[in-house]
Amino acid sequence: MSTTPEHELARLAEARDGAALAEEVRRLGHQAVELIAAYLAGVEAGPVSDPSDPDALEAAFSGPLPEAPALAAGVLDRIRRDVVPHSMNVTHPRYFGLMNPAPTVMGIFADAVASALNQNCAAWLHAPAATHVEKQVIRWLTDAAGYGAEAFGILLSGGSAANVVGLHLARNLRGPAGLRDGGLSLASGPLTAYVSDQMHYSFFKAADMLGLGRDGLRRVPARGDLRADVEAMARRIAADRAAGAVPVAVIGIAGTTASGVIDPLPELADLAARERVWFHVDAAYAGALLLSSQRGKLGGIERADSITLDPHKWLYIPNDAGAILVRRGPDLRSVYGTEAGYLREQIEGGARVNFFQYGPEGSRRFRALKIWASLTHAGAATYRAWIDHDLEMASYLEEHARRSEDLELMAPRDTAIVCLRYAPPSAVAPVADQAGAARQDARLDAIQSSIQERIQREGKAWLSTVVLGGRRALRANIENYRTRREDVDLLLALIRRHGAEAAADVAT
Fold first, then answer.
1. 477 close to 393: Cβ distance less than 8 angstroms
2. What's the confidence (pLDDT) of residue 1?
3. Model pTM score
């Protein structure tokens, strides 16, 4: 054969015997592994964020579908040249950004194995081992949450999907009888759910998709410490009941996206019990504390009817890997169980489970393998050390800010997220009236935005901003077991250097 691209593809197509196929896979796999290894080896040498022009990237990935095949080496070269350098470098120890962790190496390769097996984890017969791996992962997570033997759950794409499932369970199991089959017309009044205004935006989508409407999601203003105001929620529930509404859920947030604070879960559990509504906890981020030495911060979570937990956040698992955990496992089957004529032979019983009967997805990828492999490879003790390390780094940053005259903490720290702002004495002067205070806050907001933009452009670190209580803050999230004190020190130096420049620019 020739050495044209057709030759390479033909070898794969014609490799009917195992040895020939294995040799071709090895050849291609070595090239891919070298690409991954080179990327990981150079993590700290490159910028954290990509300064590229979006128009240039658009041009790089435009044009029609190629008619002729390309050699694998050429495809990987394109990835190495046009994808890797222009990606957010979340594995960098100075990525203090959103909830995207440095993934475990075992998770990376377990995910590749899962792709090779290409199991559809909908029915046991089509994914026998994968089903039991997922059941094991769910058991580990429900045990960590303090649930009993009846608990169950499923893996999903992430917290957004899990929050939809949690609210769906609430609607069907705490709404009018027969709602699953009869629909919303059975409701005597609008269905409502109650959550702090620090909630994740996915609840808006969930309420919309499930027919509550975004107005049916009662966003109750948080207390001054950014935690749920349970008394205000109780008053809103009482008022809504008097007006004919049908409350179905109270939602607690364990680690808000904005600031990482944890709602008073025991008080919310009491409220849900008194009102006989579903209690869902969104612990997509801070659920990882269940594997840390500070799991006591999540006291009360074991009383939740359902829990969202994302291993692809603080458990360092590659995307995507979310989970919904349910205290009474049969609740999932009662809501999602369905008939499928072409799967009638998929009888459940004993250890056999068909996951399509327990959640909204039909086709389901083998997400569990990378979680199982990472947890098994590292072990509980290592995970505890990793999460505790991130908490220690966050505490170091928090204490430095607390002692500094030019930095102001903007939120309590319950997790590894620290919210602060650069506010040197020269930028915070006494003001005579409310209008002056507003102008000063606007200047400080502009300074924080400028700091973030300057740090991003320089590329030595990355962090985000967030609005808390109407004021903009810098938000540093530590979700990387490779981050060290010197990385935090550099971030502080960058904030101060760029802050001084930004303050001077804003002042002029």
1. no
2. 38
3. 0.94
